[in-house]
Design a protein that fits this description.
By secondary structure, the protein is mainly beta. The chain contains two helices and 17 strands.
């Protein structure tokens, strides 16, 4: 497949921070890889390099963050020659690829959700995508519909299920005047708490607990968009520890 124009679009949601979403490569050294790295979206593209090394076509663009939040995110890649529009959740980024070539020259096989093991170091170190995708469209072809109807030839549809499993979590909504109080453990000398949260507010108290026997307290809050931990201990000289992230 030698193309001057490409349009690739899909939606995904995942709880994993790393994984290959889409991959294609060719005998001439061309490739396109869309993947999650540390919960950011990375597009790697090469329309060709020459053996002399004077033309270096590798181009890498990163966009977005915290994309492992198990919410739907939409991606559109529009390419016309070396001009690329990469749109993530309606935020468009325009760039031009390196090198001098305009055509993307791929083999007959492209993969969604991972990349085949080619023996190259790049294929060995990358994780396959784990999560849900929908509305996969590649140059006018509805890939999800073709895969479901088993109309992709040749194809290797692995262990796919055409449904999206939701994580078994129960969220709690706080309206800025509500709170949740749970009993403490007075005989324990260990304090441990973990939780996920999402808010648009830059300030707010997340967790507060008094220690037994008037030994002090611990407080976790958001202050100007940053999470802070404050530990107050009444019986030592340096009686306050502040950690901000």
């Amino acid at each position: 497949m030698k193309t001057l124009k490409d349009v690739i679009s899909l939606k995904f949601k995942t709880s994993e921070s790393d994984g290959v979403i889409f991959h294609g490569e060719g005998q001439q050294g061309d490739y396109i890889t869309l993947e999650l790295k540390k919960a950011k979206l990375v597009l790697n593209l090469n329309l060709g390099s020459n053996q002399l090394g004077s033309i270096y076509g590798h181009t890498s663009v990163m966009t977005g963050s915290l994309l492992d939040d198990h919410h739907w995110h939409s991606i559109i890649i529009e390419r016309h020659g070396r001009n690329i529009n990469l749109t993530l959740d309606r935020h468009m980024q325009h760039f031009r690829t390196n090198g001098e070539f305009d055509y993307l020259d791929l083999d007959y096989e492209i993969t969604f959700g991972g990349m085949p093991f080619s023996g190259k170091p790049s294929s060995n170190s990358r994780k396959n995508f784990k999560g849900c995708m929908e509305s996969i469209n590649y140059n006018g072809n509805n890939i999800t519909d073709l895969a479901k109807r088993k109309k992709l030839e040749p194809s290797n549809v692995g262990n796919l299920s055409f449904s999206c499993v939701e994580p078994h979590t129960v969220p709690v909504f706080f309206n800025a005047s509500s709170y949740l109080e749970v009993p403490g453990r007075p005989s324990q000398d260990l304090f441990s708490v973990s939780f996920l949260f999402r808010t648009w507010n830059p300030n707010g108290l997340l967790v507060f607990s008094n220690f037994a026997d008037d030994l002090g307290n611990v407080e976790i809050d958001i202050n100007e968009g940053k999470v802070s931990v404050h530990i107050n201990v009444t019986q030592v000289k340096k009686n306050r520890i502040d950690i901000s992230s």
